[in-house]
Write a structure and sequence with these properties.
disordered C terminus, Arc Repressor Mutant, subunit A, single chain, disordered N terminus, mainly alpha, elongated, 9 helices
């Protein structure tokens, strides 16, 4: 394997799971364009900067078409949040009043209920799957209630757990001969 191949594998392993540094990527693109202007071949630029030849050719084309702006960081791809800090504070104040203040029958905020509240207060629509980010940005977490029988008798369960559970709990048959699930 050539040293270039080792370099690419090493860089890939180093960056696995890490977030991308967009400013550093912009610096690499600008450096590539400057090396091209000095007369270095695209293949040599790619090797020197440890990037693909295709990327260098794309940056060269973008530079010809749009100048230096063609290789600059284009900005973030996502939209700005629809609710600002003031609106989020107002939303949280309403959420803290509880669902019954909004005439719901239970004390449980669901994603759908929060969506309706946001629409009612601010006229802003969010997709249901975006509610997770909105709620997390305010420090709220998703809580799932445990399913319990309505007629559950805690007083009857407690002694059974102490006396009865030990009889049915599985134990190894002989010491050193544990069962293996297979």
């Amino acid at each position: 394997m050539t040293s270039l191949g080792l370099l690419v594998v090493w860089m890939h392993a180093e960056n696995q799971g890490a977030s991308r540094d967009f400013r550093e990527m912009e610096r690499v693109r600008i450096r590539a364009v400057r090396l091209l202007r000095k007369g270095m071949a695209p293949v040599e630029v790619a090797r020197k900067l440890a990037v693909t030849k295709q990327a260098v050719f794309r940056w060269k084309t973008n530079r010809k078409k749009d100048g230096l702006n063609g290789v600059r960081f284009p900005g973030w791809a996502w939209r700005k949040p629809s609710l600002g800090p003031q609106e989020l504070m107002q939303l949280e104040a309403e959420l803290l009043k509880g669902p019954k203040a909004q005439r719901y029958g239970t004390e449980l905020w669901t994603g759908r209920r929060v969506l309706k509240l946001i629409w009612k207060l601010f006229g802003v629509k969010y997709q249901p799957h975006h509610m997770r980010w909105v709620m997390r940005s305010m420090g709220w977490t998703c809580q799932r209630s445990r399913a319990r029988a309505r007629r559950r008798d805690e007083e009857a369960i407690r002694p059974w757990k102490r006396r009865g559970w030990g009889r049915i709990e599985e134990r190894p048959e002989k010491e050193g001969h544990d069962r293996v699930c297979g």
